[in-house]
Amino acid sequence: MLNSMNGNPESERGDHVAAALAGAYGLAARTITQLPIGQGTINFRVVCDDDQEVFVKNYPGGTDLFAEREAIALSARALEAGIPGAQVLLNQAGDVIDSSRPLSVSVWEWASGQVVTRLSSAQLAAAGTALGRIHTLFADYPVPAAPAVEHWRGMDIDDLAATIDQLLDIIADRVRAGIGDRFDAEAQRTLLERRDMLARIPELFADLPGELTMQVLHGDYSPVNLLFTGETLSAVLDFRPPDPFLLAYDLGRMAFYPNIVTGEDNWLDAAATFVSAYRQAHLGVPGVDVRACGRVALLQLLKSLYGVKQHYLKPGLFQDDLDDFWLLRHQAANTLLSELAAIDALLAELVGT
């Protein structure tokens, strides 16, 4: 086997992947390449001796494999319903995850296509249609009596402010020690801005309708989990476990995704294209959910320190990407907050109220 990671620190992990493929799937790996994507799993592209290409997810220790199996079941259900995606391969025991070796893995057929972070109108429409179909498909999953949304609505703003202060203290210590860098300066600026923005959160929650649809979602619907071949959506990837949450979350997260909001002058038109296609594919979606999706997206951004928190407290797998993502998300939060009236007007127009 020619291992593309030979000589790198990851080569031992690559050897474990090769052993799992051979022992549990009957696949002989020719080349194994670790991909610079993902934070929750370590991911590989493998070319086998028979020229078959597969995508391998390695689940770190402590991962809830039962929940991950449920996520794979959602992916399989969507694929069976005609939503483009990747097919998971069963190991020789008939399981979707092999945990019989040092590395727990799932193995998938390689999905063709490319990630596009700045989508064309046709791509936005295809993405909206797919999410509408997914929400329609998953609407019959049971919702528990006390879903996670209650915890989300009851967020502790004082605790969030305390975490911001903790991060600012770490940055101040670095600056005093003479080791502050450019990201420290950007992180300090954005964290101070974010702390001031926290005062807006209570009113945003107060204006959010109480009766919003809760159901099983994709859970991580964003451009990085969509593959396109030209204008055609060729795969929807990385479904998350079936933990019911606000339908408006999935919808708003993609409609007002940071790359779109910060990278397109006509980002409101882009959101309208996506939401319109979604509504055509999910005719039963309540108007209140559509009208709320912009505020839900904004609240999710405001309450999250994802990226900068990892930088100073527990670095992620690809921390440079997380650093950039924090700055992008913060910029998007600023834009959404300043343009909230225009967002509300657009969404109300789309649902005719």
TrEMBL record:
It comes from Streptosporangium amethystogenes subsp. fukuiense. The lineage of its organism: Bacteria, Bacillati, Actinomycetota, Actinomycetes, Streptosporangiales. Residues 35-277 form the Aminoglycoside phosphotransferase domain. It holds the Pfam family APH. It comes from the Bacteria. Gene3D superfamilies: 3.90.1200.10. InterPro entries: Aminoglycoside_PTrfase, Kinase-like_dom_sf. SUPFAM superfamilies: Protein kinase-like (PK-like). This is Phosphotransferase enzyme family protein.
